[in-house]
């Protein structure tokens, strides 16, 4: 799922005033305005630690261009800041103050203002200020926005009271979440996404006298107070001050139960009114309580609301009007004794069209205008995209955050709980300190379905313990081209391999009938991306600068069925709860339709998935995927919903989507039957998850997050994922008595070995979470290790070298080859290999999401390991290097010799790879003696086992033959030997043991020619 940058826009600007009018309105005792930027050249284009203005963006094309331009119409001075932009991800610019000088004090002023040349685009422009911390890049971020809904120059005033703490990202995890304004480090401005444009701005300055409400604020302990009918709600009202100082002036809070709610005064509750007084000198954090008593009438009812109106004098009021909510009761859908289908039917029959549309809508938590929108729009779901995390990024903060959203849903008529989703694609990878598994390509290399199930169990337990009941995993793509930036999300290039690893679904969800979903260690799983995302053609993408991701998959109907649809049949049989369509397009040869985006393919979603395969869960769109369809918003919503999309992931445009869907239904272009079907599917899963009875986080399993037991599973998975491609002179396993020289960019980099989708969408290099690097694992294994990243230290006196090279993190199309990436090792990595392998016997480990082109380096290495992206447990890699565990991994994809061979896959007519599909030398295992006679005997055993349905005996026979043949052909890999070897592995995955032995025998014979 796509993750783009998020800015939680708080409130729109409150005044757009010409300069003269603004100054005329200022009080006489206001301090003089203080310039921040005049854009006359006094602040250079530079980055920290110097003071300067610099640009940034999601990828190389996203940063805007900036210039200081002389303009006759400049509002102030002679020059203005101008720029152009064309942003697909996120981009903007920042003015940071010098890090080696004191921060600035803005606390005497009311706000910050600037001149903006409006283009009347209607777009919001997020504006951010940097409060406290060590410097501009380690400060706390506070944000607001203004609208470009005018033409020509206007002065924009942004009062500090309008700035909200940014909830989706904080560089240092947040500091005190108080806008102190006494140590300011600058500002930044984010430009609109998805449109090409130009801008001009001038003269940023501080204005006005500080608003007293910035020094004191009144909050309530919650926004919503659910109570059972007849119960009493206690609303705790607290006063807090900047710096925790006592109040310097009295604060009063007048309260009254407001009759604007759906509850009736005197019938449903006893009216309450009064005043709370906090005198001058009151300590910050002092709390008073307002009690609201509800009444019983003994009839079955939907939930009813009682707003508690607060009028605050002398301080900033709460952001929301607190609401007391009388819980819904006595209605059939609330009766957990009834079958789920009856509960669903009862609830759907009571819902309005607007409530149904809300259930079909999913928003990004960091993109909500306000948390109250959950109830206002009756939202059915929220998600955290990659990197959208609470502050601090801890299990407790996750649970608290999600519980706060579930609390908002209690203010709706039927109190339908949210279903919250995350991309936990290799563990709870958004959460710092969670157990991070190898990516799917590594699990595919393990060829261990039971282990895949256990990784799913660990992931589900850690995800659910933070309050998240839904995981956008697993990816069931069949990767057919290593140039694809998502290749590592695939278990492999063969559908039978992908299907065999779908045991992970049971690990995530439990039993296929859904009876385990309400457990505190299970989550709803998602099969993605339906269908054909792994088969897109290089150069067919039209998304930004992507080259293959989100492109076109052109296949015959037979190829579609055999390769790309096959894993989904298995997923449906395993009871998969949700399915996500692909961003890509499908072009079925001969159907006359040409390429059609999957989000609009009713023949595949309704026809194949739901009707033919019998899928009973719900279909969730990918990130804004419906808006990649042709036509206007109405056409896009209509096409996707009618094609079978049940819930739309519309991170930023949830309001627009619900409104458009309502219009389409009222116009008859989307049927109420289609809507009822979608909502019924969604509610079914919510009931199965037990969310109606237990909407809040069950944190009893939180202590197991990142536990030794969970990391042991990840360590085992890392070990089994290692593929030994070459082992000259039996160099591996190493001895702990050997002196080992370790080098390379990925030896001691946790971020690189975990890859993309780790903590953030794209992942990043460095010590980004808790774990053990490969180097640390080798040291913990007791090895006599010396480390020199660039191999600059002396190489004399060592028994063996280990050089760990490979890729840096990326995700999705950002990682496409040709989009700033290739399959070559970096010059630094090649130099490290040359230096170490030229001085001693050496092992090269390739840490990457896909095969790397080795070229002449292969001949210079004694041993070679495909380490893939092993996750946080580098000890697992050390385990096989030092022989604590044997090497058992097998290639899940073909390893090419050159770019010109791509795409290359098992079963191709021409097949001459560097290493074939299924290749993987073993250690700690005796190779059977003999030659063709042994193979003939094993062939007889394999055929008999196949006939008898004795899978274990059949696999054992093929395994023994594979060892014998692999030893024979290792030094003579060519098309004649590699092709039948790969075909044998493909036959083995399908249970065709006799065919596998025949192919291995052909490979053996070819080696002797």
In words, what does this structure look like?
- It contains 24 helices and 38 strands.
- Helix 4 links the parallel strand 22 (about 360-365) and strand 23 (about 380-385).
- Strands 1, 2, 4, 5, 7, 10 and 13 form a 7-stranded antiparallel beta sheet that branches. A 6-stranded antiparallel beta sheet has the order 3-6-12-8-9-11, with no helix packed on it.
- The longest helix is centred in the C-terminal third of the chain and has 19 residues, at about 950-970.
- It has 5 domains: about 30-210; about 215-330; about 420-620, no CATH class; about 720-890, no CATH class; about 920-1009, no CATH class.
- Helix 7 (about 450-465) runs antiparallel to helix 15 (about 710-720) and helix 12 (about 635-645) crosses helix 13 (about 655-665).
- The radius of gyration is 31 Å and the shape is globular.
- It starts with 14 loop residues before the first strand and ends with a helix.
- About 25% of the residues lie in helices and about 20% in strands.
- Mean pLDDT is about 95; it is low at about 1-25.
- It is of the alpha/beta class and about 1000 residues long.
Q: Supply the number of structural domains.
A: 5
> What composes the largest sheet?
7 strands, antiparallel
Number of helices: 24
Task: Show unreliable segments.
Answer: 1-26
- The portion of residues forming beta strands comes to 15-25%
Taken from the alpha-carbon principal axes, the silhouette is globular
- Cα-based radius of gyration, to the nearest Å: 31 Å
Residue share in helix: 25-40%
Structural class comes to: alpha/beta
Distance between the termini: 49 Å
Number of DSSP-assigned strands? 38
The chain-level mean pLDDT equals 94
């Amino acid at each position: 799922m796509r993750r783009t940058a998020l800015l939680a826009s708080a409130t729109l600007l409150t005044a757009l005033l010409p300069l003269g009018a603004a100054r005329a309105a200022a009080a006489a005792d206001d301090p003089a305005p203080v310039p921040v930027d005049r854009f006359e050249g006094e602040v250079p284009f530079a980055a920290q630690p110097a003071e300067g203005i610099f640009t940034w963006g999601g990828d190389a094309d996203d940063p805007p261009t900036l210039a200081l331009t002389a303009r006759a119409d400049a509002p102030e001075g002679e020059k203005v800041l101008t720029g152009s932009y064309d942003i697909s991800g996120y981009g903007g610019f920042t003015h940071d103050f010098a890090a080696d000088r004191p921060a600035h004090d803005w606390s005497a002023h009311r706000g910050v203002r600037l001149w903006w040349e409006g283009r009347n685009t209607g777009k919001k422009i997020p504006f951010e200020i940097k409060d406290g911390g060590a410097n501009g890049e380690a400060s706390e971020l506070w944000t607001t926005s203004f609208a470009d809904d005018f033409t020509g120059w206007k002065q924009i005033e942004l009062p500090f009271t309008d700035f909200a703490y940014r909830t989706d990202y904080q560089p240092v995890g947040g500091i005190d979440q108080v806008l102190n304004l006494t140590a300011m480090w600058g500002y930044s401005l984010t430009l609109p996404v998805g449109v090409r444009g130009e801008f001009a701005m001038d003269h940023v300055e501080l204005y006005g006298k500080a608003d007293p409400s910035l020094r004191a604020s009144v909050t309530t302990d919650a926004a919503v107070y659910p109570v059972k009918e007849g119960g009493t709600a206690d609303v705790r009202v607290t006063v807090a001050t900047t710096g925790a100082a006592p109040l310097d002036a009295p604060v009063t809070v007048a309260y009254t139960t407001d009759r604007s709610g759906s509850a009736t005064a005197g019938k449903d509750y006893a009216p309450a009114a009064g005043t709370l007084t906090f005198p001058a000198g009151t300590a910050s954090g002092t709390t008073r309580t307002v009690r609201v008593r509800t009444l019983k009438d003994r009839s079955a009812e939907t939930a009813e609301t009682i707003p508690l109106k607060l009028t605050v004098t002398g301080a900033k009021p709460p952001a929301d009007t607190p609401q007391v909510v009388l819980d819904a009761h006595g209605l059939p859908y609330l009766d957990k004794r009834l079958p789920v289908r009856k509960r669903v039917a009862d609830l759907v029959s009571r819902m309005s069209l607007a409530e149904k549309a809300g259930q079909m809508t999913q928003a990004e938590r960091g993109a909500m205008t306000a948390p109250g929108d959950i109830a206002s729009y009756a939202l059915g779901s929220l998600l955290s995209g990659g990197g959208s995390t609470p502050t601090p990024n801890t299990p407790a903060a996750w649970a608290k955050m999600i519980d706060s959203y579930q609390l908002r849903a209690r203010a709706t008529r039927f109190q339908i709980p949210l279903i919250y989703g995350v991309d936990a694609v290799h563990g709870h990878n958004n959460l710092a300190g969670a157990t991070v598994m190898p990516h799917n390509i590594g699990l595919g290399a393990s060829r261990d379905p039971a282990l895949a199930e256990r990784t799913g169990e660990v992931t589900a337990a850690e995800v659910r313990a933070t309050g998240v009941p839904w995981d956008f995993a697993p990816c069931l793509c069949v990767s057919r081209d290593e140039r694809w930036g998502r290749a590592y999300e695939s278990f492999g290039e063969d559908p039978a391999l992908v299907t065999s690893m779908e045991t992970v679904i049971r690990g995530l969800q439990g039993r296929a009938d859904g009876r385990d979903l309400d457990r505190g260690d299970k989550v709803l799983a998602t099969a993605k991306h339906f269908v054909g995302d792994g088969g897109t053609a290089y150069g067919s993408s039209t998304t930004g600068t992507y080259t293959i991701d989100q492109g076109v998959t052109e296949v015959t109907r037979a190829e579609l069925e055999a390769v790309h649809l096959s894993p989904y049949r298995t997923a449906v049989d395993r009871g998969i709860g949700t399915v996500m369509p692909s961003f890509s397009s499908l072009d079925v040869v001969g159907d006359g339709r040409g390429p059609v985006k999957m989000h609009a393919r009713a023949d595949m979603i309704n026809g194949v998935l739901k009707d033919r395969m019998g899928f009973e869960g719900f279909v969730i769109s990918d990130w804004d995927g419906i808006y990649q369809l042709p036509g206007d918003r109405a056409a896009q919503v209509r096409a996707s919903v009618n094609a079978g999309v049940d819930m739309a992931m519309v991170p930023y445009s949830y309001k627009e989507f619900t409104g458009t869907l309502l219009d389409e239904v009222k116009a008859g272009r989307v049927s109420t039957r289609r809507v009822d079907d979608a909502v019924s599917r969604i509610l079914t899963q919510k009931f199965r998850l037990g969310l109606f009875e237990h909407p809040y986080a069950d944190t009893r399993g939180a202590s197991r997050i990142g536990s030794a037991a969970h990391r042991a599973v990840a360590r085992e998975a890392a070990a089994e994922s290692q593929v030994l491609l070459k082992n000259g002179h039996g160099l591996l396993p190493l001895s702990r008595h050997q002196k080992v020289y370790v080098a390379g960019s990925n030896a001691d980099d946790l971020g690189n070995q975990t890859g993309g989708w780790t903590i953030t969408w794209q992942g990043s290099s460095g010590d980004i979470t808790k774990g053990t690097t490969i180097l640390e694992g080798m040291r913990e294994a007791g090895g006599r290790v010396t480390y020199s990243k660039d191999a600059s230290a002396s190489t004399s006196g060592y028994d063996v070298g280990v050089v760990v090279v490979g890729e840096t993190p990326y995700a999705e199309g950002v990682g496409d080859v040709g989009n700033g990436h290739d399959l070559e090792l970096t010059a630094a990595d090649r130099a490290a290999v040359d230096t170490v392998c030229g001085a001693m016997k050496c092992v090269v480990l390739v840490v990457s999401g896909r095969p790397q082109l080795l070229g002449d380096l292969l001949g210079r290495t004694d041993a070679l390991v495909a380490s893939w992206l092993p996750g946080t447990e580098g000890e697992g890699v050390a385990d096989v290097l030092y022989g604590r565990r044997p090497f058992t991994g097998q290639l899940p994809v073909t390893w090419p010799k050159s770019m010109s061979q791509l795409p290359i896959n098992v079963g191709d007519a021409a097949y001459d790879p560097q290493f074939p599909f299924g290749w993987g030398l073993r250690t700690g295992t005796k190779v059977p003696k003999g030659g063709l006679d042994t193979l003939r005997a094993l062939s007889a055993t394999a055929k008999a086992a196949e006939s008898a349905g004795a899978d274990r005996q059949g696999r054992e026979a093929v395994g023994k033959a594979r060892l014998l043949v692999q030893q024979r052909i290792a030094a003579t890999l060519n098309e004649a030997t590699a092709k039948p070897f790969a075909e044998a592995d493909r036959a083995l995955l399908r249970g065709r043991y006799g065919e596998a032995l025949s192919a291995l025998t052909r490979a053996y014979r070819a080696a002797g020619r």
